[in-house]
Amino acid sequence: MKSTLAPGIRLITSFSRDSWYRGFILLLTFLFYTAYHLSRKPISIVKSELHRNCSTVIRPADLNITNNVTWCDWPPFDQDNYQTLFGVLDNSFLVAYAIGMFFSGIFGERLPLRYYLSFGMLMSGLFTCLFGLGFYWNIHSLGYYAFIQVMNGLMQTTGWPAVVACVGNWFGKGKRGFIMGVWNSHTSVGNILGSLIAGVFVSSAWGMSFIVPGLIIASTGILCFFLLVEKPEDVNCSPPQHHSDQENGETEPLLHNSSSADRTINGAISTEPQDIAEEHTEAISFCAALSIPGVVEFSLCLLFAKLVSYTFLYWLPLYISNVAHFDPKQAGDMSTLFDVGGILGGIMAGLVSDYTGGRATTCCVMLVAAAPMLFLYNYIGQRSLGTTIGMLLVCGGLVNGPYALITTAVSADLGTHESLRGNSRALSTVTAIIDGTGSIGAALGPLLAGLISPTGWNNVFYMLITADVLACLFLSRLVYKEALGWCGRVPRVRGFKEI
User: Band of the pLDDT at 39, cuts 50, 70, 90?
Assistant: First the structure.
C-alpha cells in the first residue's frame, strides 16, 4: 500500500525554500520592532503614577508628611507644572529621535543591518532599564531622566530604517500594502504589550515598568545577532522583483512558490530575456533621495499624521485618567484599545491601497474621516464604557491607518522607485527621511499637548484636528494625480511611477 505524507508535512513542502525564508524574516522583523515600541510605552503609563491625586490615596499611618496634596507624588513631578515637566521628558526622547533619524538611514546603508539592529536594541534596553533604576536608586533629578530619554531616543532610531530596509530587500511590490499593513501591526502590538506590562507594576514599583521592557528589547537584540539574514542572496534565495512592465504594477506574490522558469539576471528576477535589471549598490545621497517624486509630500503629511498619533501615544492614558477618573492601571489598559484600532486601520489601509492603487487617496480619506471622529470622541467619548471602547477603536484605526501605510508600503515603494534603477541601498535613506520628518511631528505633538492641556483638553483636540487637516492638504497634488489616473487621463501605476 502506497504511503501518503502527513497533512502537516504536505503543508510544509507546499511552500518553497524562498517562501519559508521570507516568512521567517517577516516574523523576525515583526518581533524586533514590537520590542522597540514595547520599550517606548511605559513612560505614558507611569506618568499618572508620578503625579497622582493624593487625596484619593490611603496614607500609611507611620508616614510623616508636610504636604497633604503632593505627599504621594514622585519629585520633581510633585510640582504644579508637572505637565510641563512630562513634556520635557517626552521631547527629550522625541527631539533626539527626530534628529537622529536623519543620520540613522545614512548609517543603515553603510553598516551591516544585523550588527546595526543588534547594537541599537541592546543599547535601547540599557537606557530603558536605567530609567527604571531611578526608582530603586531614589533619583529625583529631572536632568537624569531627561538625559536617559535623549540617549534612548538616539538608540531607537536604529530600528525603523533598518527593519524596513531588510523587509524591502526580501519583498517586491505585489500586495505590499496588505502584507506591510499586517506587518506594521507590530507598532500597535508593541504599544499594547508595553501598556499591559507597565500596568502590572505601575502601582507597586514603577521602576519595573521600565526594567522588564528594557530586558525584553535587549533579548531581541541578541536574537537579531544570531538569526537575522539581511538579503536573500546571503542564503542563496531569489531576490524580489521591484518593478514590472505591467501597467497595474507587479503581479508576483510576496510569498510565492519558486519556479524553474524564473531566472536571476544581475540580481533581479526575470521571466523574459529583455527584463534585465541592473543592480546598483552605491549609497544614495540625501538630496537625491529628496528628489524622488512623492518623498517630500508624504514626508510632510507624515509630520502631521505622526503628531496626532504620538500625542495619543504619550498623553491618552493621562487624558483617560483625568477625564474618566480611572486609576493608572485601568487608564493604561483602556488606552490599548486605540492601538487595537490602529492594527485594524493599518490592515484596511493596506488592502484598500493595494486594490485601488491609490496610496495617497487612501491616506487622505482616512485623515478626513479622523477629524470629526476626534471631535466626537472628546465630547461624547467618556459618556459610557461602550462609547469609550467604540470611539477609541474607530479613532485608532483612522489615525494610525495612514501613519502605518506611509511608514511601510509608501516608504518601500518610494525607496525602490524606478528612477533609482534597482539601487536597493536607497531604501534605508528614503525611509529615514520620511520617518525622520514624521518624527518632528512626533516631537511637536506631545510638546504642544503639554503646553496646551493646562488650558483645557478641548484645545488639545482642536490642535489634533488642525494637524489632520494639514496632513490632507499636503497630499492634495498626489490625490489629484491618482484621480486623473482612475479617470483614464494619465497612466495609473502603483509605486508613484507617474507622480
Answer: very high
CA dist., res. 118 & res. 159, Å (int): 9
Q: Estimate the crossing angle of helix 457-474 against helix 359-380, to 10 degrees.
A: 170
Other beta carbons within 10 Å of 393:
19
pLDDT digits (tens, 9 = 90+) for 92-104: 998 899 899 888 8
Q: With H, G, I as helix, E, B as strand and everything else as coil, classify residue 268.
A: strand
Please name the residue that has the C-alpha cell 515637566.
85
* Identity of residue 147: F
Which residues are paired to 301 by β-bridges?
Answer: none
> How large is the angle between the packed helices 42-50 and 82-110, nearest 10 degrees?
160
Count of other CB atoms within 10 angstroms of residue 49: 23
Neighbour-count burial of 236, counting CB atoms closer than 10 A to its CB (0-12 exposed, 13-18 middle, 19+ buried): exposed
111-122 burial, b at 16+ Cβ within 10 Å, e below that, comes to: eebbebbbbbbb
> Which residue in the block uniquely carries the three cell numbers 499593513?
181
- φ, ψ dihedrals at 264, nearest 5°: -100, 120
Task: Please give the Cα distance from 239 to 18 (Å, whole number).
Answer: 9
What residues have CB less than 8 Å from 305, skipping those under 6 apart? 363, 367, 399, 402, 403, 406, 438, 441, 467, 468, 471
**How far are the Cα atoms of 189, 206, 329, 422 from residue 258, in angstroms, in the given order?**
32, 51, 49, 21
pTM of the predicted model, to two decimals?
0.74
- Each residue of 52-77: pLDDT tens digit? 777 666 666 666 666 666 777 888 88
Length of the chain: 499
| Tally: H helices and E strands in the chain | 19, 2
The CA-atom distances, in angstroms, between 45 and each of 41, 71, 154, 155, 478 are 7, 20, 21, 21, 38
Cα atoms in the 13 Å half-sphere on the side-chain side of 119:
14
CA 52 to CA 402: how far, in whole Å?
35
| C-alpha span between 211 and 129 (Å, rounded) | 4
CB atoms within 10 A of CB 124: 29
